[in-house]
Design goal:
This protein has 381 residues and is α/β, with parallel strands linked by helices. It folds into 3 domains: 12-136, Rossmann fold (3-Layer(aba) Sandwich); 147-235, Udp-n-acetylmuramoylalanyl-d-glutamate--2,6- Diaminopimelate Ligase, Chain: A, domain 1; 239-367, Nucleotidyltransferase, domain 5 (2-Layer Sandwich), CATH 3.30.420. 29% of the residues lie in helices and 25% in strands. The protein has 12 helices and 17 strands. The protein has helices at 19-32, 57-67, 77-84, 118-129, 138-141, 147-153, 164-173, 251-264, 285-293, 303-307, 316-322, 328-337, and strands at 12-16, 34-39, 50-53, 70-74, 96-100, 106-111, 132-134, 157-159, 177-180, 198-201, 213-217, 230-235, 239-245, 272-278, 297-301, 346-355, 359-367. The strands form 3 sheets. A 7-stranded mixed β-sheet has the order 3-2-1-4-5-6-7, with helices on both faces. The longest helix has 14 residues, at 19-32. It is globular.
Length: 381
């Protein structure tokens, strides 16, 4: 079974301002892998596990709000509501906020239940201390899928975000919603039994079934989206881009080559997982700036590592200059082989090297493995 590869561990914090809260916080710290912030009134002077503060939550929380992915506050709900009100920006960016009463009876998912992970965090807290998780998100309480949670599960972007509410409303209302997953991306939410109103397809049905809304999971720029009802698109990050270039190649030339190549092959740049090149280019400004603008990492490989990868378009000229028959193609492949977005599956070269005047670019793709064919059976006589 293919499952998402683990992502970077989320940063979590626990805040408490009372003695009973400290007892609960100590139980939660290790299981949640969280930093513990305690009012200086209860923080021991030699306790390395505690970060003390003045006990005024509104003085502490603005800084933590930007530095942590999930925050558990063990105190009255009203204190938390008044404190976070001026800090809330957008569900795409706000951290998950969970509130626990000092007796440990309830773990309330207060803010950013899906994208911020508050619902899951509330469940973890409840499991650890024996509390009741309080979750009010419509898709959770009705036991159905949520597009934003699906995107979070696979580390993908969802767009246009402003249509998410309309699609989610259709799901919660029990109306027909079409899920299209033509690249068979392994989304955990889709692996179990779905509600009858969720029409899940791994290829475009013809004709499209009538539905109030739709979710498309794809790396492709798909012209058939014009035929869908109101919809959002989840862009899984299953593509890597290998780049080679002459010294001093501008960011503009690299970005133009990138945009033109993706447009020509009908690919979304939002599905780029990372960029890759040879280690000789680890300080190449044009590549570094492109990766920074796209908010993606750049990984590099030695000429020996690149030379060990068989590619369809080796170049003697490249080998004479950098010591390997290719850069863009093997770098793109290695960037996926070394750290794929999902376990299992296969890595293939999707776009062979394509050139501008000073740069070369190639795209590799992770694809799910095809299931073994069913054994042939004799026809009944």
């Amino acid at each position: 079974m293919m499952t998402p590869a683990p992502g970077p561990e989320e940063r979590r914090a626990i805040i408490t301002i009372t003695k009973p809260g400290l007892a609960l916080a100590r139980k939660l710290k290790a299981p949640l892998h969280a930093d513990l912030y305690v009012s200086e009134r209860y923080a021991g002077p030699d306790d390395p596990d505690i970060r003390s503060f003045d006990g005024v939550v509104k003085n502490l929380l603005p800084d933590l709000f930007t530095r942590y992915d999930g925050i558990v506050l063990i105190m009255a709900l009203g204190i938390v509501v008044r404190t976070i009100a001026p800090l809330i920006q957008d569900k795409k960016y706000d951290p998950g906020i969970v509130v626990v009463d000092v007796s440990g009876k309830f773990a309330i998912s207060l803010l950013s239940g899906h994208l911020g992970g508050a619902n899951q965090l509330a469940r973890e807290v409840a499991d650890t201390i024996g509390a009741i998780p309080v979750i009010t998100t419509g898709t959770d309480v009705t036991g159905t899928i949520a597009p934003d949670l699906m995107a979070k599960e696979i580390g993908a972007d969802l767009m246009p975000f402003e249509l998410l509410k309309r699609v989610s409303s259709a799901i919660v209302d029990g109306d027909k919603v079409l899920i299209l997953n033509p690249e068979r991306i392994p989304v955990p939410s889709l692996s179990g039994t779905l509600k009858p109103n969720i029409l899940s397809h791994e290829q475009w049905p013809d004709p499209l079934p009538a539905a109030r809304a739709a979710v498309l999971i794809s790396t492709r720029i798909e012209p058939r989206t014009d035929t869908l009802p109101v919809h959002v698109i989840i862009r899984p990050r299953t593509l890597t881009v290998g780049i080679g270039c002459n010294r001093g190649t501008s960011r503009e030339e690299i970005r133009t080559l990138l945009r033109d190549t993706f447009a020509r092959h009908g690919l979304s740049t939002d599905s780029i997982l990372r960029f890759a090149s040879i280690d000789l280019k680890s300080d190449e400004e044009g590549i570094l700036e492109t990766a920074k603008i796209m908010d993606r990492n750049l990984v590099t490989f030695t000429k020996e590592e690149l030379s060990a990868v068989q590619v369809p378009n080796p170049s003697r000229m490249v080998e004479s200059h950098v010591g390997t028959p290719g850069v863009a193609e093997p770098a793109a492949l290695l960037a996926l082989r070394r750290n794929p977005p999902f376990s299992g599956g296969e890595i293939r070269l999707l776009v062979p090297k394509t050139k501008s005047e000073n740069a070369t670019l190639s795209v590799a793709e992770w694809v799910p493995s095809l299931p073994d064919p069913a054994p042939a059976t004799d026809s009944p006589s």
